[in-house]
Amino acid sequence: MVTQIQQRKMNILLAYDGSKHAQAAADLVRSLPLPHPSSLYLLGVLSPRESSNHAILEASLDQMTSSIQSPEMTVESEVTVGDPAETILNYTEKLDPDLLVLGAKGLRATLGILLGGVAQQIIEYASLPVLVVRAPFKRLKKILLVTDGSRCSETAINYLAGKVSPEGVFLGEQFPLPLSVEVDVLHVLPPAPSADLLARNWPMGPELIPTTTFDVAYENSFLEEEQAAGQALVDKLVLRLEMSGIPANGILLRGDAATEIIEYAKAHQIDLVVAGSRGLSAVKGWWLGSVSRKLVHYAGWSVLIVKGLPHCVKILESEDMN
Question: Which domains are seen in the chain, by residue range?
Fold first, then answer.
């Protein structure tokens, strides 16, 4: 059994523009049981043509600062002028936060698009965990942790639950989650090969598909082994979360990764999707740019992308040396 689990002290940078999504982001941060001494830096960035709104945004930030301030957390705020995405990314280097939080859409985001231009740029280029929050925020009750089994997916798990040794010794602090939160762990297996799938994806057209005789027994054996490996991964991660005191369920699906994740989240009232940012490789991993972009663009809920790229590189270098 794991003992003496502690929640991580967090230094958070929250990009704030007064929009309903930015306010939802602030509400989410306020709902977290952040231990002392955590800190929050509220950053408002105005483009040069919006600089006349400086006093309005500053007043909104002051009000938000007062509402969030608590004995457990120090809160500072600042309004500056510059390119929003570039400025926010520069502040992540300056402040070195544990987490960057922002609203999915700003005040001037195009209607009908679930991810604003600033959020999109930050998701692409930030090198730290990024939490994109969508309004309205109620409270975190159900989290979906998705994994492709890669070492950088494990970075997301460690960020959420803290590290645990194979012997069950707790090695690190976990993300400050509300006690009532439940986590579903989801792994998506690739679609099973079929004549229909081959016809739809064959580059030269279905009429030119070469005639092939499939070994049905071999194919079924391969799918069973793949299923067993996927189930073992899910079971391992469920146990991993439960060792950290986080109630968890395991789900194994097969199909298009982004589609399965989005449909599952819709059907099960997921409040937050958590995932690492890299897969195994350009060939083996499904957690690549296309999947991550689909999740943050088309999902109607908040998404935490644990970028962790420097950490992943360190892991790979360390394992290569051993």
Answer: 1-137 (3.40.50.620), 139-301+311-322 (3.40.50.620)
CA-CA distance, 237 to 146, in Å (whole number)?
10
Determine the Cα–Cα distance for residues 178 and 192; give it in Å rounded to an integer: 38
Q: Strand 99-103 to strand 73-81: parallel, antiparallel, or no bridges (unpaired)?
A: unpaired
Q: What's the token pair of residue 174?
A: 């976990």
Q: What is the pTM of this model?
A: 0.82
213-270 per-position pLDDT tens digit: 555 666 778 789 999 999 999 999 999 898 888 999 999 999 989 899 999 999 999 9
Nearest to 153 by CA among 191, 115, 120, 186: 186
- C-alpha distance from residue 40 to each of 10, 15, 61 (Å): 8, 10, 12
Q: Tokens 């968890």 belong to which residue? A: 248
